[in-house]
Amino acid sequence: MSRNKEYVNAAGLRLDGRRPGEMRGMTIEFGTFTGCDGSCTVVSGHSKVCATVVGPREVVNRLESRTDQAVVTCAVAIAAFAGDRRRNAQRDTLQSEEISNAVVQVVRSVVLLPQYAGSQIHIAVEILQQDGSEKIASINAACLALMDAKVAMRDVVCAVNAAQMDSHLLTDLTGEELRSQCAVLSVAVTGHHTENIVWFESSGRIAPEVLKSLMEAAQGGAKQMFTTIREAIKEKS
After folding, report:
1. What InterPro entries has UniProt attached to this entry (predicted)?
2. Does the pTM exceed 0.85?
């Protein structure tokens, strides 16, 4: 991790003014798109991700169908204007494939797939603005879009990351903080029971004693996020 920059000042504030364990403000808007069964746009800080869901519907390709549960597919696109520099829109890249795989893994863990045997659920994610983990943002937007589509799920999903920087435990890292090359723990937990982990990954080496602290920090961030999600659901209903 770079030591040439101070990510938490003497007052205990991060570069964007947050406390170390404080999540960025999140705006959740359901039903932002037509022509699909469910959709959601999530804005967190300067990050913006849209997700749409089509299904559960009959599988078009019978060779891909399953008689015991639904088939889940996901396509991810990163807009040309999403990052700091304009570039060609990214589809079918290694990054988009990794995000897609993570979304599918989480969805398969929480959706009651046997209820939709022989059907397909397709999720499309578009990353419009990048400021933080695109994978985390995509998981959150996709799971909220599934809720809008009224797909049966075991629980709400809250995906959060955490890292230790200069002896501070930070949650919900921004793009600038991630560029410090610190070791990051990313997790997705269920909202009502944050000890129930449905997905996790780490970048860099994390000592066992630090791993426990990072997990607790991420679970604390998930609890904050779950409060925001519950409020958004109440407004929707």
Report:
1. ExoRNase_PH_dom1, ExoRNase_PH_dom2, ExoRNase_PH_dom2_sf, PNPase/RNase_PH_dom_sf, Ribosomal_Su5_D2-typ_SF, RNase_PH
2. yes
